[in-house]
Amino acid sequence: MSVFVKAEQSGRRVVYYDADGSKTVRDGGDPNWRTNNPGNLVSDTLEGKKYGIGKFKNDAVHNFAIFPDMETGEKAMKEYIKRKFGEKTIQEMMEKYAPPKHNDTEAYIKSIQKQTGLDTNRKISELSSGEFERLRNTIKKHEGGQVGKEMTSSQSPLSNLFNAATSFLNNIANKLNTFLNGINSFLQGKDDANFYTAQKGDTLAKYRLDIFSQISCIIFQILLLLFQKHSSSLLSTVLHKTPLHLLCSCSSLCFSACV
Predict the structure, then answer these.
(1) Which of 106, 84, 110, 80 is nearest to 95 (CA)?
(2) How far apart are alpha carbons 236 and 175 in whole angstroms?
(3) What is the pLDDT of residues 31-65, one digit of tens each?
(4) Which residues lie closer than 8 Å to 123 by C-beta, 6 or more apart?
(5) How far is the C-alpha of 241 from the C-alpha of 229, rounded, in Å?
(6) Residue 118 lies in domain
(7) Domain match, 130 and 217 both
């Protein structure tokens, strides 16, 4: 499993980076799942600063902390509640945790009371470990938790497009090499004349060279037309990922077309 060292927001997505720069993207689901932040802790809390690896702006007011994994998010939530609200009652805690300005606080408190069976006038420090976990799990459920989609860099749509383009070009290269080798053999016949060292007096070799160059030029122009609809960034990335034998084939075509 990857250990994430950095995270950033990209629209509604969260992009995680591990130590070697590989990316994992979380999309869809609830914000607290995308951010590994089950309690929706804001980034400027002590725990957000201590354990967070990024920020996620979910609305005009809140910057939620992004944690490297859900275990760290769970730990941060526990520490935050005990540190911040240890001597507060459940009622008092929720008035600060989910203030009326941005939440239906009363409905939130009633939901906690109904699902946990706890007296909301009890202090957090008085709760047993089991009671505390019931309270925390109810808060987590209320905050969200729906799972969305997670994609590694090799599974991202853009990466899939690059892979498909590379596969397509490889297929062209293989067929092109076979075709040109066939043309070469056909034109040479039993004559051992070399296309690229044809002498002035060797009319047959010149004729073969002319035909070969024209065919290569036509094929190369067709390849160029295939790329006219693609941006330069896509083309450069595809070329960067293209195997050496394909680049050599294209270079050979360019040379042949310009002879």
Answers:
(1) 106
(2) 23
(3) 999 999 999 999 999 999 999 999 999 876 789 99
(4) 86, 87, 88, 89
(5) 19
(6) 4-150
(7) no
